[in-house]
Write a structure and sequence with these properties.
Structural class: alpha+beta
CATH superfamily of the largest domain: Winged helix-like DNA-binding domain superfamily/Winged helix DNA-binding domain
Number of domains: 2
Order of helices and strands: EEHHHHEEEEHEH
Number of strands: 7
Strand order of the largest sheet: 6-5-7
CATH architecture of the largest domain: Orthogonal Bundle
Shape: globular
Number of helices: 6
Largest sheet: 3 strands, mixed
Distance between the termini: 42 Å
Strand content: 15-25%
Radius of gyration: 17 Å
Length: about 160
Amino acid sequence: MNCYFVSNGIAYRSLVDIMDRLTHFEDLCRKRGLSLTVQRRVILQELLERGDHPTADQIYEAVRDRVPGLSRTTVYRVLDTLVQVGAARKLSHPDAVVRFDPNIERHHHLVCQQCGSLVDLEASAISNVSIPDTRKTGFTITDYSVSFTGICSRCRPKKSRKE
């Protein structure tokens, strides 16, 4: 269970939750025989501390001064590793850049069709939907999330002025 506090409408993880997630990641690395590199730890910590769903480039800009010699390619590779080991999720939406989410529990998103921002949406009614039988298609569903598109509160006034 993630612990959050909210500031300016953005949910941030608590320091205790961040430390627990970093410790869990260290355990994951040991179990999988992965090196716990400075780059992996710093990038995961940055991802956990953010209240948004950053792109790889945003993560790179945020951590490049903390890790001498860090390349953009390394950030992309580390984020892919975090996704592969289950420490983060990769979010892809049509016409949008790939973003990363440290919340690995099933949850849903609100997507602004103007600025592309993503906001977590906890909706138990949606999370409890029965997974359809897909045996006839040969497709195996492993998980799901729902995205609702619309206009965020920051873009809504801009749109109203234009109209």
